[in-house]
Amino acid sequence: MMIEEKKSLNFIEQIIEEDLANGLPKEKLRFRFPPEPNGYLHIGHAASICLNFGLGLRYNAPVNLRFDDTNPTKEEQEYVDAIKHDIDWLGFKWDKELYSSDYFQQLFDWTIELIKEGKAYVDNQSSAEMAQQKGTPTEPGTDSPNRNRSVEENLALFMKMKNGEFEEGSHVLRAKIDMKHTNMHMRDPIMYRILKKRHHRTGNDWCIYPMYDWTHGESDYLEQISHSICTLEFKSHRDLYDWYLDQVVESDKLRPKQREFARRNLSYTVMSKRKLLQLVEEGFVNGWDDPRMPTISGLRRRGYTPASIKTFSETAGISKRDNVTDVALLEHCIKDDLNKTAPRVMAVMNPVKLIITNYPEGKEEWLTAENNQEDENAGYREVPFSREIYIEQEDFREEANKKFFRLKLGSEVRLKNAYIIKAESCLKDENGEVTEIYCTYDDDSLSGSGTEASKRKVKGTLHWVSVKHAEKAEVRVYDRLFTDEAPDGQKDKDFKEFINPDSLTIVDAFVEPSLKTAKVLDRFQFQRLGYFCVDTDATPDKLVFNRTVPLRDSWAKMGE
RNA sequence: UGACCCAUGGUGUAAUGGUAGCACUCCGGUUUUUGGUAUCGUCAGUCAAGGUUCGAGUCCUUGUGGGUCAACCA
Q: So what's the ipTM on this one?
């Protein structure tokens, strides 16, 4: 029997369903993702991307990619390119690539009308004076002495602003709304400021640039976006969004609707562009795509898949309350994906040499190994075996209780894909560290050979790499970037105080030779260790792996 | 001494006046040539007090707690 489980709608979808039920034609549904090209996208943006593009898919509606580029002092083409790459990598297709700067002329024309209607005025006070008059959230503001200039004077001054006749910062254009409004954003907000900066798209065409509020809603309107979805910190901008829309909306056109949801926070990291930029600029990480960063590019380099990020966003859901999502959920999503898709290989990170004394010297065998038992199409590969192999130091103990079912003196263990061996003795250095382990093997116990010996139940199975055939590789092991769950949640402490000094450990490892041909961003499971991917620093001569995420380790959890 | 938003297990989310469910985490069992995976199970929740109602996580009131808002940023 099929159990039809209907997925519950999130509150945004509910709003849309309601609008549809109230007569909004389905064909009018249209969404947008509006990044400012002043930084890299992070996992929080992924929530918005997955939401907006997910709605597009769900309702078969177009989704525009619109760069909100009204501030030429911060925005750059580099960021535009990176953002496009990230969205594309996630697998989403935008309908049109657009820029708020495409609308500068229309915005200007509308502004002239507003001035003529007496709804906007030029103010030439200092920013300090204006801030003073603005009041506080608990106290009303007072009117600017320039609030009642004549239309003619405003028009003339605004044209001078536009023509570059005034210095930066000397004049602004303000909407004339209400200096006593309880919403600070309604206290005669600035519509235009003078910025004598070259814009990455419009060059030197303009020296006045519109502010976010006066741009965003009108851009939505011009694109006929039905639902303009943003994060909660814009909630109080909604009054202004609507006020501006009131000035331009024509009754036969769709009026966009702004709705807000809570930003997605992740435990043990920070999610503001400002703070991420700080980590980059102050050298706490090696760039926006450092694998420890919660950026899309960092996660990509770390080995995360688009599917895992989308599953994460979907599973975490959306709502309107503050949240700190456990990074364990993100890690679960990537492990779940990679478990099904990543080829298994063997690598030894902390090697100790093991010699099989009864295995003929000089002999080598190429043994068949299953690439992925979770994927029957993954096939098989050959791995070389010989008399001397590396195993992990922590897989051997001279003596141990019966909970330790790895290798110990006098007992047996299976070498993955190979033979059953028994530890006979070991050699130690002056510090008591084991330097060599001597074993014997059962030559009738080869994995998959079907012999009685091969079917023997042996509790432990170890991964290994043949010494003679081992490839060296640099492995970068990452831990969380911060030691606190919510590093920017502390009132009187800077988030940088919680930076984990051990977030990166570099290990020289030995890997099986099949990895020699691995390409950048190829993902693998190093058996019993975790998921790893080839870092962008790798070259044909030097293998470099990033540890994406370790495997669940219930042995370590026992704490013995 | 303002306005607005929010409050469900440790975490993230469902339940649209009618059995508080799902996922992650944690813990335990089974299986296993990865101490992985899979699988079974345990623990654990409606901020508080009133009110409306046959019935309230849901509606109302009042508290309490958290958040947002005063860039020529978005």
A: 0.96
